[in-house]
Amino acid sequence: MHREPLLAILEVYLERFPEDRVRADHIRQFVRTHSKCFERSCTEGHITASAWITSRDYRQVLLTHHRKLETWLQLGGHADGDPDPARVARREAEEESGLSSLEPFPSGVDLLPFDVDVHLIPPYRGEPAHLHHDLRYLFTADSGEPLRISAESKDLRWFALRELEKVSGEGSLLRMAKKAREVVGTKQR
Hints:
Elements lengths: L3 H13 L4 H13 L11 E11 L4 E7 L4 E3 L1 E4 L6 H13 L5 E2 L10 E7 L8 E12 L11 E8 L3 H4 L3 H18 L1
């Protein structure tokens, strides 16, 4: 079954982050019960993937001001049939930023999510409200590389991590910042 690799990823994720069981279990149940979970045509919700992109020194994060949702978010998007969420996260990040210097963190190993989230997307232009079951991956990039704003965004900007709460009070964004600091700190020791 094309969903088995994702279920295996979520098992490993839960070994690493057992405190995220509620969110991960929600995604696992969704994947098990929806054979078209990677397709936008699954109107109840679908798998998405996103990239938390930090500068090489881990002091800045790249965010996009999402045109449809009118808020600052990490880059990412729909799987559109691709069952590999790490590949989806990278593809979406490259498409939405123009960055060619993206590197997964940690490098040299199978890329696993460092966060998962389930969030409601409001109705928009005839599309009903639905859930995004999002797997989030950590990347680094050269913060000096020129950026290209996509049609999905109003703006694209590097923000100092220490100032993130001034940009957004959105809980999952702040959780990713905290978890990224912990993951990076653990790997650098």
